[in-house]
Design brief:
Length: about 210
Protein backbone atom coordinates (compact mmCIF):
# COMPACT_ATOMS: atom_id res chain seq x y z
CA UNK A 1 0.00 0.00 0.00
CA UNK A 2 1.31 3.50 -0.76
CA UNK A 3 0.17 6.90 0.48
CA UNK A 4 -2.07 7.65 -2.52
CA UNK A 5 -5.78 7.24 -3.36
CA UNK A 6 -8.88 7.51 -1.16
CA UNK A 7 -8.81 6.46 2.48
CA UNK A 8 -10.44 3.15 3.35
CA UNK A 9 -10.92 2.24 6.99
CA UNK A 10 -11.71 -1.31 5.88
CA UNK A 11 -8.22 -1.59 4.30
CA UNK A 12 -6.58 -0.25 7.45
CA UNK A 13 -8.59 -2.66 9.59
CA UNK A 14 -7.66 -5.60 7.33
CA UNK A 15 -3.99 -4.60 7.42
CA UNK A 16 -3.86 -4.44 11.23
CA UNK A 17 -5.82 -7.68 11.47
CA UNK A 18 -3.06 -9.36 9.42
CA UNK A 19 -0.25 -8.08 11.66
CA UNK A 20 -0.46 -10.66 14.44
CA UNK A 21 -0.02 -14.35 13.65
CA UNK A 22 -1.51 -17.27 15.60
CA UNK A 23 1.90 -17.66 17.30
CA UNK A 24 1.65 -14.01 18.39
CA UNK A 25 4.37 -12.85 16.02
CA UNK A 26 4.10 -9.28 14.73
CA UNK A 27 4.48 -9.09 10.95
CA UNK A 28 6.00 -5.88 9.64
CA UNK A 29 4.57 -5.76 6.10
CA UNK A 30 0.89 -5.58 7.08
CA UNK A 31 1.72 -3.09 9.85
CA UNK A 32 3.43 -0.79 7.35
CA UNK A 33 0.47 -1.19 5.05
CA UNK A 34 -1.85 -0.12 7.88
CA UNK A 35 0.38 2.88 8.56
CA UNK A 36 0.23 3.96 4.91
CA UNK A 37 -3.56 3.89 5.13
CA UNK A 38 -3.54 6.08 8.24
CA UNK A 39 -1.06 8.50 6.67
CA UNK A 40 -3.32 8.80 3.63
CA UNK A 41 -6.14 9.79 5.93
CA UNK A 42 -3.98 12.32 7.76
CA UNK A 43 -2.90 13.86 4.45
CA UNK A 44 -6.54 14.30 3.44
CA UNK A 45 -7.08 16.48 6.53
CA UNK A 46 -4.98 19.30 5.08
CA UNK A 47 -1.61 21.03 5.15
CA UNK A 48 -1.83 21.88 8.86
CA UNK A 49 -1.05 18.20 9.57
CA UNK A 50 1.82 18.18 7.06
CA UNK A 51 4.61 18.16 9.69
CA UNK A 52 3.02 15.16 11.40
CA UNK A 53 2.47 13.14 8.23
CA UNK A 54 6.01 13.98 7.06
CA UNK A 55 7.44 12.44 10.24
CA UNK A 56 5.19 9.38 9.96
CA UNK A 57 6.14 8.92 6.26
CA UNK A 58 9.86 9.18 7.10
CA UNK A 59 9.51 6.50 9.77
CA UNK A 60 7.52 4.11 7.60
CA UNK A 61 10.07 4.62 4.81
CA UNK A 62 12.94 3.74 7.15
CA UNK A 63 11.17 0.47 7.93
CA UNK A 64 10.53 -0.22 4.25
CA UNK A 65 14.21 0.31 3.49
CA UNK A 66 15.12 -2.26 6.14
CA UNK A 67 12.53 -4.71 4.81
CA UNK A 68 13.71 -4.35 1.20
CA UNK A 69 17.41 -4.16 2.01
CA UNK A 70 20.10 -6.82 2.03
CA UNK A 71 19.11 -7.92 5.54
CA UNK A 72 15.41 -7.88 4.66
CA UNK A 73 14.82 -11.44 5.84
CA UNK A 74 15.49 -10.26 9.41
CA UNK A 75 12.74 -7.66 9.10
CA UNK A 76 9.87 -10.00 8.43
CA UNK A 77 8.59 -9.86 12.00
CA UNK A 78 9.11 -7.69 15.06
CA UNK A 79 10.63 -10.68 16.83
CA UNK A 80 13.20 -11.39 14.09
CA UNK A 81 14.05 -7.69 13.86
CA UNK A 82 14.68 -7.40 17.61
CA UNK A 83 16.77 -10.57 17.63
CA UNK A 84 18.84 -9.37 14.65
CA UNK A 85 19.44 -5.81 15.86
CA UNK A 86 20.28 -6.98 19.41
CA UNK A 87 22.79 -9.46 17.99
CA UNK A 88 24.76 -6.51 16.58
CA UNK A 89 25.29 -5.18 20.10
CA UNK A 90 23.54 -2.61 22.30
CA UNK A 91 25.96 0.22 21.39
CA UNK A 92 25.16 -0.15 17.69
CA UNK A 93 21.44 -0.33 18.45
CA UNK A 94 21.41 2.73 20.72
CA UNK A 95 23.65 4.77 18.43
CA UNK A 96 21.67 4.42 15.21
CA UNK A 97 18.83 6.89 14.61
CA UNK A 98 17.51 4.72 11.78
CA UNK A 99 17.50 1.37 13.57
CA UNK A 100 14.36 -0.70 13.11
CA UNK A 101 13.79 -0.97 16.88
CA UNK A 102 14.02 2.78 17.51
CA UNK A 103 11.76 3.54 14.55
CA UNK A 104 9.16 0.92 15.49
CA UNK A 105 9.21 2.29 19.05
CA UNK A 106 8.16 5.75 17.74
CA UNK A 107 5.33 4.23 15.71
CA UNK A 108 4.39 1.99 18.62
CA UNK A 109 3.98 5.02 20.90
CA UNK A 110 1.82 6.66 18.25
CA UNK A 111 -0.31 3.53 18.12
CA UNK A 112 -1.27 4.10 21.76
CA UNK A 113 -2.43 7.60 20.82
CA UNK A 114 -4.43 6.06 17.95
CA UNK A 115 -6.12 3.51 20.23
CA UNK A 116 -7.16 6.17 22.72
CA UNK A 117 -8.28 8.53 19.98
CA UNK A 118 -10.40 5.94 18.16
CA UNK A 119 -11.93 4.80 21.45
CA UNK A 120 -12.73 8.43 22.30
CA UNK A 121 -14.36 8.90 18.89
CA UNK A 122 -16.29 5.66 19.20
CA UNK A 123 -17.72 6.40 22.64
CA UNK A 124 -18.05 10.19 22.23
CA UNK A 125 -21.35 12.04 21.89
CA UNK A 126 -22.55 13.47 18.57
CA UNK A 127 -21.48 16.94 19.63
CA UNK A 128 -18.13 15.94 21.18
CA UNK A 129 -15.20 17.97 19.95
CA UNK A 130 -12.71 15.89 17.96
CA UNK A 131 -9.96 18.33 18.91
CA UNK A 132 -10.59 17.66 22.62
CA UNK A 133 -10.64 13.88 22.11
CA UNK A 134 -7.40 14.17 20.13
CA UNK A 135 -5.69 16.44 22.67
CA UNK A 136 -6.70 14.22 25.63
CA UNK A 137 -5.45 11.10 23.79
CA UNK A 138 -2.21 12.84 22.88
CA UNK A 139 -1.59 14.09 26.44
CA UNK A 140 -2.18 10.58 27.79
CA UNK A 141 0.30 8.97 25.37
CA UNK A 142 2.72 10.60 22.93
CA UNK A 143 3.04 14.01 24.57
CA UNK A 144 5.39 12.80 27.31
CA UNK A 145 7.91 11.76 24.63
CA UNK A 146 7.84 15.10 22.77
CA UNK A 147 9.62 18.38 23.49
CA UNK A 148 7.59 21.51 24.24
CA UNK A 149 7.75 22.89 20.70
CA UNK A 150 6.35 19.67 19.16
CA UNK A 151 3.61 19.48 21.81
CA UNK A 152 2.66 23.08 21.10
CA UNK A 153 2.57 22.60 17.30
CA UNK A 154 0.61 19.35 17.60
CA UNK A 155 -2.04 20.79 19.93
CA UNK A 156 -2.44 23.81 17.67
CA UNK A 157 -2.95 21.53 14.66
CA UNK A 158 -5.61 19.53 16.54
CA UNK A 159 -7.74 22.70 16.70
CA UNK A 160 -8.23 22.36 12.91
CA UNK A 161 -9.98 18.99 13.25
CA UNK A 162 -13.61 18.92 12.12
CA UNK A 163 -16.52 18.04 14.43
CA UNK A 164 -16.94 14.39 15.45
CA UNK A 165 -19.72 13.63 12.95
CA UNK A 166 -17.92 15.42 10.09
CA UNK A 167 -14.79 13.48 11.02
CA UNK A 168 -16.65 10.15 10.97
CA UNK A 169 -18.01 11.05 7.54
CA UNK A 170 -14.54 11.80 6.13
CA UNK A 171 -13.72 8.21 7.06
CA UNK A 172 -15.81 7.17 4.01
CA UNK A 173 -17.52 4.28 5.74
CA UNK A 174 -21.08 5.55 5.47
CA UNK A 175 -23.23 7.21 8.13
CA UNK A 176 -21.60 7.97 11.52
CA UNK A 177 -23.27 4.90 13.17
CA UNK A 178 -21.63 2.62 10.62
CA UNK A 179 -18.24 4.28 11.10
CA UNK A 180 -18.62 3.81 14.88
CA UNK A 181 -19.33 0.09 14.37
CA UNK A 182 -16.24 -0.28 12.21
CA UNK A 183 -14.13 1.51 14.80
CA UNK A 184 -15.36 -1.05 17.32
CA UNK A 185 -14.16 -3.76 14.96
CA UNK A 186 -10.77 -2.10 14.30
CA UNK A 187 -9.71 -1.15 17.85
CA UNK A 188 -9.07 -4.71 19.14
CA UNK A 189 -6.67 -5.41 16.24
CA UNK A 190 -4.76 -2.22 16.95
CA UNK A 191 -4.68 -3.12 20.67
CA UNK A 192 -3.33 -6.52 19.81
CA UNK A 193 -0.44 -5.07 17.74
CA UNK A 194 0.26 -2.61 20.54
CA UNK A 195 0.18 -5.38 23.16
CA UNK A 196 2.65 -7.73 21.49
CA UNK A 197 5.07 -4.89 20.70
CA UNK A 198 4.91 -3.58 24.26
CA UNK A 199 5.57 -7.08 25.65
CA UNK A 200 8.47 -7.74 23.28
CA UNK A 201 10.16 -4.37 23.81
CA UNK A 202 9.71 -4.55 27.60
CA UNK A 203 11.21 -8.05 27.64
CA UNK A 204 14.36 -6.72 25.92
CA UNK A 205 14.45 -3.32 27.73
CA UNK A 206 13.90 -1.45 24.48
CA UNK A 207 11.13 0.90 25.60
CA UNK A 208 13.49 3.84 26.16
CA UNK A 209 15.64 3.78 23.02
CA UNK A 210 16.94 7.35 22.48
C1 LIG B 1 -9.17 5.45 11.43
C2 LIG B 1 -9.12 6.82 10.94
C3 LIG B 1 -9.11 7.88 11.93
C4 LIG B 1 -7.81 8.16 12.56
C5 LIG B 1 -6.78 8.60 11.59
C6 LIG B 1 -5.57 9.04 12.27
C7 LIG B 1 -4.50 9.22 11.29
C8 LIG B 1 -3.21 9.34 11.98
C9 LIG B 1 -2.10 9.06 11.09
C10 LIG B 1 -0.86 9.08 11.48
C11 LIG B 1 -0.51 9.37 12.89
C12 LIG B 1 0.74 10.13 12.98
C13 LIG B 1 1.78 9.41 13.70
C14 LIG B 1 2.90 10.30 14.05
C15 LIG B 1 4.10 9.53 14.48
C16 LIG B 1 4.90 10.35 15.41
C17 LIG B 1 6.15 9.65 15.82
C18 LIG B 1 6.91 10.55 16.77
O1 LIG B 1 6.61 10.58 17.94
N1 LIG B 1 7.88 11.33 16.25
C19 LIG B 1 8.58 12.31 17.04
C20 LIG B 1 9.86 11.72 17.58
O2 LIG B 1 10.65 11.27 16.52
P1 LIG B 1 12.25 11.34 16.63
O3 LIG B 1 12.61 12.79 16.62
O4 LIG B 1 12.60 10.70 17.93
O5 LIG B 1 12.75 10.60 15.42
C21 LIG B 1 8.80 13.55 16.20
O6 LIG B 1 9.51 14.50 16.92
C22 LIG B 1 7.43 14.01 15.82
C23 LIG B 1 7.18 14.99 15.06
C24 LIG B 1 5.78 15.31 14.57
C25 LIG B 1 4.72 15.52 15.61
C26 LIG B 1 3.97 14.28 15.96
C27 LIG B 1 2.68 14.58 16.69
C28 LIG B 1 1.83 13.35 16.67
C29 LIG B 1 0.43 13.63 17.07
C30 LIG B 1 -0.48 12.45 16.89
C31 LIG B 1 -1.12 12.40 15.55
C32 LIG B 1 -2.27 13.34 15.42
C33 LIG B 1 -3.02 13.23 14.14
C34 LIG B 1 -4.33 13.90 14.27
C35 LIG B 1 -5.27 13.61 13.17
C36 LIG B 1 -6.52 12.95 13.52
Amino acid sequence: MAAAGAFSLREVLDAFRGCVTERREGLLEPCLSGWWGLIRFLQSLGAVFGFISKDAVAKVQIMERHRRGEQGQHYESLQSMVEFELSRGPAELRGRPDSGCRTVLRLHRALLWLQLFLEGLRTGHRDSRTSTICTDSYNASLAKHHPWVVRKAATLAFCALPSRDAFLEVMNVGPPEQAVDMLGEAIPYIQSVYGITQELFAQHSLLDLP
